[in-house]
Amino acid sequence: MSNLILGIESSCDETAAAVVRGGREVLSSIIASQIAEHAPFGGVVPEIAGRSHVRAILPTIERALEEAKVDLSEIDAIAVTTRPGLIGSLLVGLSAAKGLAYSRGLPLVAVDHIEAHAYAAVMEANDDAYPNLTLVASGGHTALYEVRSPIDLTRVAETRDDSAGEAFDKVAHLLGLPYPGGPSISRLAQSGDPKKIAFPRYRAKHGGTDFSFSGLKTAVLYYLRGQDALAKTPAPDAIPNRADVAASFQAAAVDALVAPSLEYATRRGLGTIAVVGGVASNLRLRESMQLRAAEVGIRCLFPSPIYCTDNAAMIAGLGWHLVRAGRAADLALDASAR
Ligand code: KG4
Ligand code: ZN
Fold first, then answer.
1. Same domain assignment for residues 141 and 290
2. Ligand 1 centre from 102 Cα, in Å?
3. How far apart are the CA of 139 and the centre of ligand 1, in A?
């Protein structure tokens, strides 16, 4: 039985490698962040990401093995993110994984980045976490999954437009805050009043559960322009109540994530809600979900912040379950953006 898995992740702006034993025991998890390279552009630049992965991938894998005190010859399988993500970035991790698998005759296993985010919450929970409702809220995705096992997920709702993380990033940009927007907005929101401005909370019609964040983002824009759509957006330092805008936006975004999740879990009788992805490190989201779930007897699972944002431990962890289920692949494995 394959026990020691080397995980490789390069779908977006983090080059990551990790060694995980038995799907849970993280021996190492190395993340080389490119945030500083993309920050001047206010978002991830695909060409920069691809080049940066090329530079970082082998040293990151070496460090992961070193820190785990594991030799490549002891690794039982290689798990690699193959979708979704920036295609040029995905291919860097996949090529490295194929090279290592070929040279060592190791099984290769393809991991879906979103399914790995979902697994991150369970990787650290020491009891049975299934079935559950998983809210994935990241920069690229905002969706609900009904999850019956690490490898059995059904998407039951998703965003009609922007992701929650994108809304944080765009509003941060309007407020002149640095990228990535989530952490900057939370920081500024601490000194603001979340009830000051009543931004809209999207609710799906006809009992639907989908999310939407573009209306909220536009509401913030119009608020900043003084309700005049044709006015110019004020310069960040000319906005008098930036902290109130940040706090009120954050409150609205959190409500728009919490309400549909609870509604769906209650309707389907699911006793556990897992919240994962970059936005899951948001403290207000954690507190609000926890509080409102407790009121209806639902338990919440959150990964530690280091396993909320992109990492390779979640890839190696889920990879172990996939190998066990006989889902190892051959070298013809391909990557896909969607
Ligand atoms: O999961 P992730 O690292 O990458 C993707 O797969 O997209 O998520 C990144 C997103 C960014 O949009 C970032 O602004 C957001 O997660 N984020 C947060 C927080 N920390 C990161 N959003 C809200 N509050 C936070 N504390
Ligand atoms: Zn991610």
1. yes
2. 34
3. 5
